[in-house]
Amino acid sequence: MDSILDRAITAALQAANPELALNRHLHRQQHTLTIAQHPYDLRDRDIRLIVVGKGAIPMARAFATILGDVIDSAVVITKYDHTGNTQLPAHWQLIEAAHPVPDQNSQFAGDRVCQLLENCTEKTLIFAGISGGASALMVAPQARISLSMIQVINEALLRSGADIGEMNAVRSHLDRLKGGGFVELAQPAQVVGLILSDVVGDPLDVIASGLTNHPSAQNSLIGNNRQACEAVAQVFSKAGYAVEIVTTELTGEAQIRGREIATQIGQRPAGTVLIYGGETTVTMTAETRSKGGRNQELALAAAIALHQRQ
Which residues are paired to 128 by β-bridges? Predict the structure, then answer.
C-alpha cells in the first residue's frame, strides 16, 4: 500500500502534468476550439504549433490528440533524453537541445522557429505551448551577439545566485524571440500561448523570458506551483492532518530558507503538515564542488538544523 507521502508526491505530479493540464484547458467541438471561454474557429486557417520546454513532449501529445488533424506545421523543442518513446505526427519536427546552458541545437531550434514565424498572414493561427526551460532550449541571438557570448553569460548568471527573474531579464535583451519578440515576428498572425508556469508569481514577462508577453497575444496559464501545493494539501487534509500552505512564493538562498523552515516546523504542533512552494537559489563560487539541486540543498539544511535541536 502506498504511503501518504507517495500519494502526496503523485498528486503534485498529476497537478503539474503538462498533458493533463492541456487536456483540462483545451475543449474542441468539431471546428471550434475553446480556451478559457474564448472560441477559436479552426476552419480556413493556417495553423502552426510551437512547443518548447522540458514539458514539451507531454504537451505535444495533448496537442496531437486534440488538434493533430488541423495543424499544418509544428516544431517541438525539448531537453536531451526527454523524448521517451513518444510518436508524434510525421510532419512535426522534433529538436532536442541543452539546458540550462544553450548549445548549437538551441540556436538551431531558435532559427527554425524564426523561419516558422516569418511568413505568417492574417489567416495564421499559432499555438505556443510553453513550459520550464524554454529560455535555454531555444535561442535566437540578436545581431552582434554570438551563441558563445550567450553561453558565457548564462554560466555566470547560474553561478551568481541570481533568481529567475533577474536571469530572464538579461536573456530577454540578448534574443530576438524573447521579451515578446516571438509575437512581433509572427505579425499579423494570431498567437495563443498555453503556459505551464515554473516561475514564482507567474509573471508573463519572466516565464520563458517573455516569449509571448505581448499585448496582441492571448495567453492562458494552464498550471503553476500553487496548483501542485493545493493538490498535496488535499491529500493530507483527507488523511486528517492539520495542513498549512505557508507560501507558494518561496525564494532566496536555499540553505538560509532551509534553516528558517526548520525553525517554523519547531513552532507548530505535532501532526501539522507545512507545505512550501517556490524557487530558491544557490550561490556558487569557483571552488564549489556541487551535486544535486536547490531542493536537496534546502532539505539538507533543514534536516541538519532539526537534528541539532534534538
Answer: 50, 193
Calculate the CA 95 to chain-centre distance: 17
| Site of grid cell 538562498 | 253
Q: Could you say which of 193, 224, 255 is where a domain stops?
A: 224
Model confidence pLDDT, tens digit, residues 145-185 = 999 999 999 999 988 878 899 999 999 999 999 999 999 99
- Tell me the C-alpha distance between 213 and 79, whole Å: 23
DSSP 214: S
For residue 234, being part of any structural domain is answered with no
> What sections of the chain are H helices per DSSP?
4-15, 18-25, 56-67, 104-117, 134-137, 147-160, 164-174, 181-186, 225-238, 254-266, 294-308
- Domain span at residue 251 reads 241-308
Place of cell 571552488: 287
Angle formed at CA 229 by CA 227 and CA 231, multiple of 5 degrees: 70
Do 207 and 194 touch, CB atoms closer than 8 A? no
CA 41 to mean position of chain CA atoms? 27
Stated length of the chain: 310
- Could you write out the DSSP letters of every residue in 23-39? HHHEEEETTEEEETTEE
pTM of the model: 0.89
CA distance 52 to 60: 9
Could you give the number of structural domains in the chain? 2
